[in-house]
Amino acid sequence: MSDISYKAVHKKYRTGHKQRTVLESLTLSVASGEFYGLLGPNGAGKSTSIKLLLDLIRPDSGSISIRGLSNRQPPARRPIGYLPENPYFYHYLSGWDTLLFCGQASGMEKRQVRERGAELLEVLELTEAASRPVRSFSKGMSQRLGLAAALVHDPDILILDEPMSGLDPLGRHLVATLLGDLKKRGKTIFMSSHILSDIERLCDRVGIVYKSKLCFHGSVHELMRGHADLEAAFLAVVQKREEELA
After folding, report:
1. Closest CA to 210 of 244, 230, 238, 246
2. Which of 83, 139, 161, 241 has the fewest other C-beta atoms within 10 Å?
3. Contact 185, 151 (CB under 8 A)
4. Domain ranges for the chain
């Protein structure tokens, strides 16, 4: 049984009298313990796919399940940790207070949050800043705090929307190392990104979304077959989709 499954999911956005198709018959699955990357340019539908999975928005048709349960059922979403593309925090709270809030909202005791939070803050090099108000954090620090908040309750399934956004090279290295460790521990990771190098380095399988359609779904090795690098492979998939639409 897959940890994540989309079946023939359609989604349109309405602006006035106009409709725009964002996802067209999206069908894919993510196995338990797999690191899956959803790749595509800005506006391709990656964030929409994640919001649909988390039941933040509803599809026009099709179904989504998490470990065999409909994603609309709250128990299905309990094993999930989520990092949005632009995490938002209460600016007057400190980093520690933010983790306590998120951990207790997930049913953890303060002692558990402090133990787990201390580990995550150290790994993400936020220990010294953790007592400061979040409003003083840089973009990269806020992004790393968002990842710590997503992981504080030790979820089995991690949903990451552009997790490398706003990170400098050191921050990207810290996050990539942590994600690699989580993969080794058997966590299921579903990550959207437009950064090809991150997909190539971290993911077992990849899906490419372009102009509302899932144009490729398979291993990174399969995607790169016959191409010099991942960029060439990605552009070939995009070109094929453009030819279909012509």
Report:
1. 238
2. 139
3. no
4. 1-79+156-171+187-245, 88-155
Beta bridge partners of 26: 9
> What average pLDDT score do residues 31-46 get?
92
Place 21 in a pLDDT band, splitting at 50, 70 and 90.
Answer: very high
Alpha helices in the chain (DSSP H): 46-53, 74-77, 95-105, 110-123, 139-151, 169-184, 196-202, 220-224, 230-245
Sheet holding 35-39, edge to edge: 80-83, 157-161, 188-193, 35-39, 205-210, 213-219
CA–CA distance, 124 with 146 (Å, rounded to integer):
11
Cβ–Cβ under 8 Å, residues 222 and 36: no
- pLDDT-based confidence at residue 16 (cuts at 50, 70, 90): confident
List the Cα angle 41/72/215 in 5-degree steps: 25
Q: Which residue has the tokens 């291993």?
A: 219
Give 63-119 pLDDT, tens digit per residue.
Answer: 999 999 999 999 999 999 999 988 989 999 999 999 999 999 999 999 999 999 999
Query: Closest Cα partner for 207 from 69, 11, 45?
Result: 45
Q: Name the token pair of 94.
A: 């400190």
CATH number of 1-79+156-171+187-245: 3.40.50.300
For residue 91, the 8-state DSSP code is T
